[in-house]
Design goal:
Layout: H1 5-10, E1 19-23, E2 26-28, E3 32-34, E4 41-45, H2 50-53, E5 56-60, E6 66-73, H3 80-86, E7 91-98, E8 104-119, E9 132-146
Antiparallel strand pairs: 1-2, 1-7, 3-6, 4-5, 6-9, 7-8, 8-9
């Protein structure tokens, strides 16, 4: 018995190039997003009977800020990254991974994001590469949400 095309498509990993970024309800364009992570801290508890019972491992989530890097091509007349750097209030942000039809299927939600720095493109007259601004933000309250 054969497998349908839809079942085959669902068993393949999603391409990483099809994503959307929104911040405070506004869509943003980025060529690359990296550094998104959610981590649990672990504590190993040992007592006098650990040699018999084994050690206990306790995991907990500590809501701390992580560094996220956003890369965006420089476009004439566009200065939204530079304006964002001047803001001081933390804003929510979301990165959605989309399927081949452009429908979001998984989201990384950040409750608070604060821009830390912008790095200018490397200026080199010997190359014909696009000019890319790199912005580093600190994000807290990262959660992973399935959308489909």
């Amino acid at each position: 018995m054969g497998v349908s095309i839809e079942q085959q498509a669902r068993s393949y990993p999603l391409p990483a190039y099809n994503f959307r970024v929104t911040r405070a309800g506004q869509s943003l364009r980025f060529a690359k997003v990296s550094g998104l992570q959610r981590e649990h801290k672990a504590i190993t508890y040992r007592d006098g009977l650990s040699f018999l019972d084994g050690e206990l491992l306790a995991c907990y989530h500590l809501d701390q800020y992580v560094s996220v890097t956003l890369e965006q091509g420089v476009v004439e007349g566009e200065g939204s990254l530079h304006a964002w750097l001047e803001e001081t209030d933390p804003q929510p942000m979301e990165v959605q991974l989309c399927n081949n039809k452009g429908i979001p299927v998984l989201a990384w939600r950040m409750a608070r994001t604060i821009p830390i720095k912008i790095t200018a493109p490397t200026f080199d007259a010997r190359t014909n590469e696009a000019a890319i601004d790199v912005m580093e933000i600190k994000a807290s309250g990262v959660s992973i949400v399935p959308l489909s």
